[in-house]
Amino acid sequence: MTMIRVAPPLPQEVDLAKTYDAVIVGSGAAGGMAAHVLTAHGMQVLLLEAGKKIDINQELRSMQWPYEHPRRGDAPPGSHAISFNEYTVRQPPYAKAAAFRHVYSYVGGWGGSDYVKNILVDEKDHPYTGTRYAWVRARLLGGKTNIWGRLALRLSDYDFKAKSHDGYGEDWPISYADLAPYYDKVDLYLGISGVKENLPHLPDSLFQRPTKLNIAEVQLRERLKAMGRVVTPYRAGVTTDGVKHNKYRSKCFGRGACNRRPGGCDIHAAFDSPTGLIYPAMDTGRLTLRTNSTAYEVLVDRNTGRARGVAFVDSENRKSYEAKAKVVILAASTLESARLLLLSRSRQYPNGIGNSSGHVGHNFCEHVMGPGVTGLVKELVGKPHTLDDGRPGGFYLPRFRNLKDREPGFIRGYGFEGSSGHSMFPRHTSDTPGFGAQFKKHIRDYAGAFISMGAFGEVLPRYESHVDLDTVEKDRWGIPVLRFHYQFGDNERKMAEDMATTAREMFEAAGIEVIGVDRDVLTEGWSIHELGTARMGSDPKTSVLNQFQQSHDVRNLFVVDGSSHVSASCQNPTWTIMSLAWRSCDYLADEFRKGGGNV
Ligand SMILES: Cc1cc2nc3c(=O)[nH]c(=O)nc-3n(C[C@H](O)[C@H](O)[C@H](O)COP(=O)(O)OP(=O)(O)OC[C@H]3O[C@@H](n4cnc5c(N)ncnc54)[C@H](O)[C@@H]3O)c2cc1C
Ligand code: SF4
Question: Which sign does the torsion angle of CA 91, 474, 309, 463 carry?
Answer without folding.
Answer: positive
